[in-house]
Amino acid sequence: MSNDPVCVRRAKTVEEAEIIVAWLDENGIEATIVDPSNPGVMAFGVTDPEGIAIWVADSEKADRAAALLAEHDKRPAGVETPDAAIDTIDVACPDCGHTGGFPADLAGTVQECPECGANVDVP
Q: Which of 67, 72, 69, 117 is nearest to 94 (CA)?
């Protein structure tokens, strides 16, 4: 079996390519941006008309990468996945009723209400 790199997508901009590479990496697939016809990006992020090539380092993971990208493409614009990062969790204090936001990494902990100091469960 070959582990040669495989092109799985072409992006319109460098920024889009970087986002796709990072997302694939988060999903356990090593990817890189390669544009053999244009090794340097021209001014304003414009590259060749075919776009910026995104390669998966291991050909054995190319099918999974293609499936993930296809699934992502089917989602309506602006809809986040259930496991998408949440910045804050809003919680109402049971004592004073004040609603405050807590960082998502505090989920499952007990914190102090910023208004009255009572204990607040962060779900």
A: 117
Judge if pTM exceeds 0.90: no
Q: Of how many residues is the chain composed? A: 123
**Side chain identity, residue 29:** I
Q: Which of 50, 66, 51, 39 is closest to 13 using CA atoms?
A: 51
Q: How deeply is 66 buried, as exposed, middle or buried, from its count of CB atoms within 10 A (0-12, 13-18, 19+)?
A: middle
Return the CA Rg of the chain.
21
The owner of tokens 């016809």 is 37
Burial of residue 85 (number of CB atoms within 10 Å: 0-12, 13-18, 19+): exposed
Residue with the two structure tokens 């992020």:
45
Q: Say if residue 18 is exposed, middle or buried (CB neighbours under 10 Å; 0-12, 13-18, 19+).
A: middle
pLDDT in tens, 20-65: 988 898 888 999 987 555 544 443 444 456 788 889 988 888 999 9
Question: What's the token pair of residue 11?
Answer: 């992006």
The Cβ of residue 99 has, within 10 Å, a number of other Cβ atoms equal to 11
Chain centroid to Cα 83, Å, comes to 10
